[in-house]
Amino acid sequence: MIRLTVNGTVHELDVPSYRTLLDCLRYDLGLTGSKEGCGVGVCGACTVLLDGKMISSCIALAAFADGRSVTTVEGLARDERLHPVQQAFVDAGGFQCGICTPGQIVSAKALLDANPKPSDDEIREWMLGNLCRCTGYYKIIESIRAAAGRSRA
Amino acid sequence: MAHRIVGQPLGKLEGIGKVSGQARYSGDVTLPGLIWGKALRSPLPHARILRIDTSRARALPGVLTVLTAQDLPDILVGRRMFDMPMLARDRVRFVGEKVAVVAAVDPDIAEEALALIDVEYEDLPAVFEAVEAIRDGAPILHENPGAYDGAPSERPHPNVQSVLRFKLGDVEAGFGKADRIFEHTFRTQLDHQGYLEPHAGVVAIDDDGRVQVWASNKMPFRLKELLSHALRLAPEQIRVNLTPIGGDFGGKGSLMDLPLAYHLARVTGRPVKMLMRYAEELMAGNPRHPSVITMRTGVTKDGRILARRVKALFNSGAYAAFKPAPSVNLGGAGMGAGVYRIPNLLIEALCVYSNNIPCGHARSPGEPQMVFAGESHMDMIARELALDPADLRRKNLLRDGDHLANGHHLEHVRASDTLEAALKASHWAEPKPGPWIGRGMAMTHRHIGVGFTNARLRLDSGGTVILSIGLPDTGTGAHLVLRQVVAEVLGLSLDQVEIEVANTDDFETDSGVGGSRVTHTGGRAAYHAAEKLKTQIEAEAAKHGIPAGSLAAIARAAAKDGRTLEAAHFYDAKAHAAVTSFTAQVAEVAVDPVTGEVTVRHFTTAHDVGTIINPIGHQGQIEGGLVQGLGFALMEEMKTEDGRISTLSLGDFKLPTIQDIPPLTTVILQDQVGPGPFNAKAIGEGSISAVAPAVANAVADACDVRILDLPITAEKVFFALREKVAR
How far is A57 from chain B (nearest CA, A)? Predict the structure, then answer.
């Protein structure tokens, strides 16, 4: 039995020891926002925050999160209002197919929590672990700039 | 003409669900009683299957069934040529071919069960290189390929899937008149489309016995037809439910695991989900064809092209099943002529069987391969003739009234304008900023796609116009574009038009997403449906004396008469327009003289386009295609060793990251001549193909080293530099 706080809600779950955190979120809790892309911790589509720190949930076991707090993309909007990072991705076209987007947004939120006014170089450094095949990244950088309240470097 | 909504840089309003995690992709679909399917794949490139023992797998608790080819009807599947078994029957032809499939109550148990299946194989001689596969005495992949449904008749060797030819004038006579003849051979790599959503599908047989399908497939109506064929079910027995697709780039048009998911569902009576792992994508997806291309061009001494002969070998792997075109070849082979008027031309492209992963379509199929060869070749010729590569191109560019390799007549040709715009924006004529820095250019063009789309509009009781469409959302922003078109025609604001994604019960047919067609066909279907609805709204308003802008009142008045205002349009474009879209690009690179590493310092991309309906989405297509082109140019390669792919994760098979993108200048030459709504053209495949040759030409300019095979890795440049010093 593990005890997880996910997006502020406490869950007690009986999961097999081999269950990954990603599968636990997706299949045991029905939170399918986090995606499996590469499945080996490279692409970042499964990024969630564990006690506020980014991790690849596809290579973390659910048991590892026992007693800890997980934030997924579903936990960012408040009362139907998008989080400013989410709104910026919509306004600036920071996604296309959307499969990497939950991970991009969780990572960008973590960046802005740690560094509210990142430079372009800092954005590129921080976001290195989130692959995107659709956008070529230009509009992701633009979205994060906008979320940080600045237009261009 | 000024527009209100068309041309507005509207954000990706259709994507609220995508940023909030609420969008449901096919892999997210869940149903009561859902179970999981997983496939066992061949570890050998070519072998006879002697025996399969599934008893230990069946005995594992949680396993519901295990199927092999013996349990399935003997039906071959494909998109145009039907040569691939759903499960290997008596023989495997590539590493990764499916030999058995398991259904279990959870994905981990299904995976565990795979390890308990015993298969006894007997090795067969295998062939991996296309050149070797068409030699006399090569191992034969298929005994009688001509007998397969959809197989082309011309077959110079049993390992040839198809031959595609383009011919203009008399190529031998052209060479006879040439002052100089140049011949070079180029190679391009096996490359995955790189969508981050592996193939996913859910199949359920509902209480009425109908087959319900959710799949990452961009052509749902064609999927229904193909499933009907593969499963021997009447088409009306199948419903494909549309979901967003997590990236396509040409790779999401096949049946993939869906027939197996159906059979598992049939046998177990439970809904079945099958998700490919990314390793399976890299082992058995349907990647871009590797190629060997020889270009031979005859010119006058001042650089006019008189003749060109192109021979292309596309290594298609073990099956032709993934290619959708009637030719069972890659139409992009026609780009062997480039953007040039070549009076005497012969292009011959062969798709060849080998014991490798079967290849399919990838963004601008065949063109990145052919344009890399053609545009590298042009620079090599310019150098031999001591001409500026821009001048050699200027002398030969297509003009109004010219014909493409396929004989297609062109008007309103903007090749020259596009080239000059790219040269200007890239400061081509100015001195380079330092040593080991080079500039390279390349050009291409891409058609505006054709096909057929259904659109239906209705005015709902609240006064909102609902657009129903059977085109899935692959991420291009097409749904927003269609809403903008409808809002523009009807004089509405964007929030008065909503989209309702249809399923395959709602319409007769639709050609789906791909081939740079959606803005054109979907846009025109929506446009004409909106015109029809507008007429109805105006008539209804006049009848009741209501202002034409009061949509809710009009809808209520119609409802009182027992009617709903609705309109539909089926738009079917069979022939390509006489216009195309040109691209000219310039790369500025720095080469590290010690390591050979290539850094793209700046990239300029110029595009000849029509009316832009959504500038954010339009620019997103340019940027995404361009960075995909950079990956093809510099880093992406599925490496194989005797048919085994050794780069089986996204850690080994490297896609560009956010650190790999260069400063970018985009130049847009906008015009009013496209066949799309409001004279739109196409953009989705325009920016990818010329990138690799622009980079290769820049590398040659920087350090006098010519890389003839992609990708242009530091290693290749390093050894080429060393060889140059040794000379």
Answer: 15
ipTM: 0.97
If you measure CA to CA, which chain A residue comes closest to B197? Answer: A37
- Say whether both A27 and A71 belong to one domain: yes
Measured between CB atoms, which of B19, B277, B476 is closest to A96? B476
pLDDT at B15: 86
Contact B624/A at CB under 8 A: yes
CB atoms within 10 A of CB B422: 28
Asked, colleague to colleague, whether B26-124+197-246+252-284 and B449-573 share their fold, the answer is no
Residues of chain B neighbouring A127 (CB-CB closer than 8 A): 658
pLDDT tens sequence across A21-69: 999 999 999 999 999 999 999 999 999 999 999 999 999 999 999 999 9
pLDDT recorded at residue A151 = 55
Q: Does residue A153 surpass a pLDDT of 50?
A: no
What the block records as the tokens of B193 is: 């489309």
**What residues of chain B, 106 to 135, have a C-beta less than 8 Å from chain A?**
106-108
Give the pLDDT score at B1. Answer: 61
Say if the Cβ atoms of B649 and A36 lie within 8 Å.
no
Compute the average pLDDT of residues B162-169.
98
Residue-by-residue DSSP string for B201-268: EEEEE-TTSPEEEEES-S-HHHHHHHHHHHHT--GGGEEEEP---S--TT---S-TTHHHHHHHHHHH
Q: Do A82 and B20 lie within an 8 Å CB cutoff?
A: yes
Domain boundary among A75, A106, A131: A75
What is the reported pLDDT for B632? Answer: 98
Distance CA B23, CA B13 (A): 13
Domain extent for A119: 84-147
Give the pTM.
Answer: 0.98
Per-residue pLDDT band for A80 (boundaries 50, 70, 90) equals confident
Residues 266-295, chain B: which have Cβ within 8 Å of A?
Answer: 275, 277-279
By the 8 A CB rule, do B443 and B415 touch? yes
Q: Is the pLDDT of residue A79 over 90?
A: no
Question: Would you call B233 exposed, middle or buried from its count of C-beta atoms within 10 A (0-12, 13-18, 19+)?
Answer: middle
Query: Chain A residue with minimal CA distance to B11?
Result: A91
When CB atoms are compared, the residue of B106, B198, B658 closest to A137 is B658
B34 touches chain A (CB under 8 A): no
User: From CA B431, how far away is CA B440, in angstroms rounded?
Assistant: 13
Task: Kindly tell me if the per-residue pLDDT of A152 is higher than 70.
Answer: no
Residue among B13, B14, B18 with most chain A CBs within 10 A, to mutate: B18
Residue B9, number of CB atoms within 10 A of its CB: 14
Is the confidence at residue B276, as pLDDT, over 70?
Answer: yes
CATH 2.60.40.10 applies to domain B26-124+197-246+252-284 = no
